[in-house]
Amino acid sequence: xKTKNFRSRLLSYAIPAVAFGVSMPYAHAGExxxxxxxxxxxxxxxxxxxxxxxxxxxxxxxxxxSGFYIGTWASNVNYGADxxxxxxxxxxxxxxxxxxxxxxxxxxxYYNYDKEAEFDFxxxxxxxxxxNFGAGIAVxxxxxxxxxxxxxxxxxxxxxxxxxxxxxxxNGVAIGLHLGHHDGDFAEAFNGxxxxxxxxxxxxxxxxxxxxxSDTNVxxxxxxxxxxxxxxxxxVSYAVDVAL
Length: 244
Description:
Layout: E1 31-39, E2 43-44, E3 47-48, E4 55-63, E5 68-76, E6 87-99, E7 102-113, E8 121-130, E9 133-143, E10 158-170, E11 173-184, H1 185-191, E12 197-206, E13 209-216, E14 233-243
Antiparallel strand pairs: 1-4, 1-14, 2-3, 4-5, 5-6, 6-7, 7-8, 8-9, 9-10, 10-11, 11-12, 12-13, 13-14
């Protein structure tokens, strides 16, 4: 993760897929599903997780009739030639429901990396959708990372807030607009940036294909070297979903 524009796979009662930047299963209630994708660049919250190289990703999800869901997802990552990161493995669970035309989703997400990294962490999240609009907040729950001088990695001390809007333009073509802000001591330590930052993107999708233009105002280490996270990025992806 140094993370993600989390797979936009929503439950059948949640908002359209183009509207979210958090990970949720794409499955009809009461069934298992699997997903796989290839992307030219793994972008999470506006930042590359693969040094601007390609990634192969996939996961398995279960959505119950009650609204409860659980799933797992994995991707290759690369944060530099001299680091110990090679993979990201996520486990998440939550509950989604709709009332009065508003969809709600609350859950827990655990990010697992190579053992040597000692930087696993978890978040709790809440997403709300109305029509084609979506809003979400994810806050730090816990981490195995050690705090540095002047840092606080306690519950709620880092967060990611996002706004999304998605719509179709015809012939199965969908447009997604996203705005997010990541801040807090842990967010800064994990990403290597000097302070909180804002990311924004526009995506165009049809079938399993998507094209995204993404940019940020990030500064510090996250914007330097091979990351180039302060530069506009163009990403092409293809994803398939299969009911099991």
